[in-house]
Specification:
about 850 residues, five-stranded mixed sheet, about 25% helix, globular
Amino acid sequence: MNSSEAKSLCESLIHADTEQEVIERLTEAGYWDNPAAWRDLGDEPENYSTVGNQQSRSEHALAEKLINAIDTKLIAAAVTRGIDPEGPQAPASMMAARDAFFGQEIKDPEALSRSITVAATGRRAPGKPSISIADNGEGQTPSTVPRTILSVLKGSKKRIPFVQGKFHMGGTGVLEFCGDAHNVELVVTKRNPDLLPQPVDDSSEGDWSFTIIRREDPAPGTKSSRFTFLAPEAEGVDGKHGVPHFDNTALAIFPDKNRPYERQAEWGTLFKLYEYDVRAKTNMMLDDGLMARMRLLLPEPALPIRFHECRDFRGHSGSFDTTMVGVIGTLDADYRDSKRDNVEWFDKFEMDVGGERFTCRIYLFKNKAAADNYRKDEGVIFAYNGQSHAVFSKDFFRRAKVKQDYLWHSLLVFVDCSAISIRAHEKLFMANRTQLRDGELKRALEEELQDNLKGHQRLKAIASERRARERTAQPAVSETFKNFLEEMVRKFPLLASVLAPGLRIRNPHKPAAVAQGDKPWKGRRFPTRFVFKGHESGFELTRDANLNSQVRISLETDAEDPYFSRYEEPGTFALYQIVEGERVPAKNWKSPNLFRGFANFSLAMPADAEVGAVLTYETEITDPSRIEPFCNRFMLKVRPERIDHPWELKEPTRPLKSPSSKPGPDRQDDTRLDVPEPTPVYERDWSQHDPAFDRLTAMVIKEPPPDSTDDEQQGVSYDYYINMDNVFLQTAQKENPKRAAAYRARFMHGMTLITLALIQHDVADKQRRSQDAAEEEDGSARVNVRDRVGEVTSALAPLILPLIDGLSAVTEETEAESMTAVAGEA
C-alpha cells in the first residue's frame, strides 16, 4: 500500500473500538485472510508458551504496559542528554533517573502527565472498554519495531539499570485479555527525531509505522495457538516482511479531556487494547474504577500518568481526566492537607534483613470506610521501582504475631524493596511480579514486618484509644451470668471444657494508677539528646545477646515522635558494627520506633557470630540542624541460642487470690476478668464500631491490642460485643413485650456460650496443628475465629430464642409421645 493508504488504514484502526471493526477494516484492505501478510510475533512460531505465561489478571498486565511507557521516557531522556543508558554515567535506579532527568518537571505533575496517557473508549458496562496507552518516549522506526516492541525474550533493556522491564515480555501479557476470538491489539509508533542516527540512510526511518497483533487458532498438528502481527510490506535487508508505514509530521494519538485522539504528537507510541477485559468496567474516575486499581498496582510510579474517561458518561468538564501519581503520593497529599482527614497517622521505618534494605511506610486511616476509598482487601503491598510485586491481604494484621484486631480494617503498609540486590529480587519475587517466592528471605522479611507492627508503640496507643471508644463502659461481671454458668456446668459437666482456664478476657480499662500516669507528650523538633535508657551521654552499654533472638536497644530522647518519619527535615538513623577498628554498615536491624521519649530498635546477630564473642556497634543519629551527630556505642556478648517452649493451655498451679478493692498496678488480677460479659451495642452506636454493626450482626469479638505487659503465655483473650438491637431480638421483644427482659438475657447468654465454644474449638485446633504451617502469607489457610464467631452467631440469631423456648418445653413425656407417633406412622 502507498503512504496515503497506510495512513488512512492506520487512522481507521485507531478509531475502531471493537475486534469486529478491526477485522472488517483489514478484510476490506485484503489482509485479514491473507497468511502471507502476517509474521510470527518475535519471529517465534511457538510464541504462545511465552505470551500465554504472563500475568493472570488483566489489571496487572496493563500495569506492565504503563511501566514500559515510563521506561521509554527515561531512556529517551538519558540518550537526548548524551548519556549511554548502559554506561557508567547512567543513573543507578529508576527514582535516581527520574530525579536526574525530570527533577524540575516533576514539580508540575499535571503538565508532565500529559506525556503518558491512558484513555478508555468504546462501550460502557456490561460491554468491555478499549484502552489506549500513549507516550512520547523513544518511539521506534519501521525497521526496529519487529525486534523491539514486537519481540519476545530479546532483552534489549536488560543492561539498563534504571528501568523495570528487561526482556519485552511484560508488554505481551495484555494480549490474552484483548478482543474476543482473536485477541487483537494495535501498535502505532514513530521514532523520536533526536534519537535517529545522523545522517539517516533511509528516509522511511522517520515514518510512522503501525501493525495489528492477533492470535491464530492452533493449526492442524500443533498443540497451541500462536500470535502474529501484520507485516505486508516488502522484504527488508533481513529478508523478512515489514510493517506498514507512512510519512506524516504529526499524528493525533493523545487524548484531551474526554476526546480520545485529539492532541497531535510528532513522535511517540500508541497501544490500543480492543475490548480489554478489565473487571472495573465502570467510569475510570470512580473509587472502584480502573484508575483506582492502577493506583494500587503502581503505588509510586517514577512518572505521573494522565487518565481520560472518553466513553459517554455524564459529568462536568473537569470530571473526565485526572493525574495518577500512585496511591502513596495520593495518601501523602491527603495526610498533609488539613482539610482532609482520611489518613489519621503515618510512619516510616527501615529494616535490614540479611543485609538487604527495605523501607516501610504505614498509613492508618480513621476508619474502614476511609480505608476503602483507597484499597479493598490489600493490607501489605511489596513494591519494587514503584510497581506492586506482591500483596498480603489485610488479614495479615490479625495474625497472632501482629495482633491488630482494632486496626486491621484501617491499616495499609507498603514495603519498598527497590534497594535490594538483583539476586535478592530473584529470591523474593516470582517472575510474574504478583507473588512472593516462598524461601528463607521471604520468611525472614515476614517475621521482621510482623514484629515491627506488633511492637509499634504508636499503633498500640491508637488501638487502645479506639478500643476505649468502642467499650464505652467497663462491662461489669454479671452475678446472674456467673450463677447461670455454674448451674449449667453442674448439670452438664462437658461444658467445663468450653470454660477452660485461659478463656478469660482482660479488663478493658487501665488500672487507676496507670491511667493517672498518662500525660501528653510533646517532644522537640530538633532534639538535644539521644542516650541509652537510664544513662548519661557517653555511656557504653554492655549486654547479652542470644544467637537466635532479636536484641532490643532503647534510647532516651527529647525528640518528637515523627522525628524519623516526618516529610520535612527528618532525622536519620544509621547502625554500624566496629570491625578491626573500622565502622562498617551493620546488617539485620530495624530502624527505631520512636514513642514518647524512647527510641527502640532491634537487631539480630551476624550469621558468623560465635558464642563467647563480644560484638561492638555504634548508632549515629543526625538531622539538618546538627553539626555533629549523636553517637552511642554498645557491646553485645554472644550467648547460645535460647530455646522457646511451645505455648499450651495449662491448669493454674495454685488458686487465685481474691482481688483487692484498691486500684493500681499491684492489685491481684487487676487486668483479668474470669467471666466474659459482652459490651452491649445499640443501634445509635453501630457506626462507632469498625467495621460498623448492622441489623443482622449478633456477636463480635476482637483481640485486645498488645501492650507492654503482653505475653502469649497469658492465654486466649478477647473483647466481646453483642448487638442488643439485632433485628431478630427486637422482633421477639415486640411480639411479647412482657418477656423482653428475659429475651435479652437469653440472647446474650446464649450467644456468649456459643462464642466460647467456638473460641475453645479454635484453641484446640491450633494445638493440633502447627500455627506457622496453618498461617499462609495471605492468612486464608484457616478461617479466622473472629470471622467464624461473626458468621455463626449471625446465622443462629433468628433461631436462638425459638430454640431455647422449644427445647425448654421438651420433656421425657414429650419424647415418648414423639416416638409413639413415629412408630404409628411406620
